[in-house]
Amino acid sequence: MTPFSYFDAFASRYEHYKDGRWCYEDGCIYRGLVLLHKATGEARWRDHLLRLTGPQIAADGTLQGFDPDEFNIDNILAGRCLFHLADETGDPRYMAAADRLADQLAAHPRTQAGNYWHKKRYPEQVWLDGIYMGLPFQVEYALRRDRPELIDDAMAQLERALDLTAGPAGLYMHGYDAVRAQGWADPETGRSAAVWARAVGWLAMALVDLAELVPERAPLARTKALLDAVVAQQAPSGLWPQVLDAPALDGNYEESSASAMFAYALLGAARLGLTPEAVAGRRAWEALVSTRLEEAKGVTRLTRICHVAGLGGFEGVYRDGSPGYYTREKIVADDAKGVGPLMMAGAEVVRAGLAAETA
Questions:
Q1: Please, are residues 227 and 221 in contact by the beta-carbon 8 Å criterion?
Q2: What DSSP assignment string belongs to 110-124?
Q3: How does the average pLDDT of the chain come out, rounded?
Q4: Which of 93, 153, 172, 328 is the most exposed place for a label (fewest CB within 10 A)?
Q5: For residue 254, what pLDDT is reported?
Q6: Using alpha carbons only, what angle is made at residue 116 by residues 114 and 119, rounded to the nearest 5 degrees?
């Protein structure tokens, strides 16, 4: 089975991640489908997207299960598909839905420095995940609605977040607590203690997407520097470890979702001219396809994906953000947080002319 056949089969059997409620996990798949449709022009990717989003978006733009008062930055990500759907269909429901998400951002609580809280239940915290969840949507929305002040705000938030989360070896720490209230936060810097690969993956994808959306405003030098730092951590296998800067850490393993994110970011950066070549991204793509797409009982699945990781209290457990914590989270197959980015990387492979076939 080619990876593109796998994407088609996965999308055909995919069920909404949270019982149909608007969420970022579905948004990862939607983003992959959008980029595959743009790269290939094949109707199947658009058709999957229309089928999956259809029950979630009402005629007036209401989003199923979406509560703006939760102030959950994660819920913004899925909104990026709305712009493509609006272009493809001309249906006003999609920009009406985008307006609802933008309304949440307009009221979203911020740190004193001006960065969005990650969630209402994670007050005063900035996570790398949230940069990808919110800022590219805000910039794309600003371009659609001619709101340049929203681009100014997004770029200012990005620069501050990079300063606040800067870590070792040109990499970035998972989170930052502006008031140092969390046990995981360093009392002096406010930063968490580990370089989690998927968090850096979210950041890398955000930076490359922003470089494409607003190249004249994006922090291109910092983007290039991060990608160089990521390449420096790539294992001989072509993949990356769960705790990015500690490959020898007991229990560390090469994790698929972050590796897919880096493949996408590196391939996209090469297309945009931010890096001189796409060798590292292609190595990652080929490693994921050859070693992590595994067939069992007639079904192909993407394996070795960290199910979830975070900071602070969640479902009665306190996540301390230590390097060892990240090695203990559950490992699963076919999670949207891995498959979606692999779809995105596949779209870049097509755009680069590297795909022998997409059937």
A1: no
A2: B-TTSPBPSBTTBTT
A3: 97
A4: 328
A5: 98
A6: 150
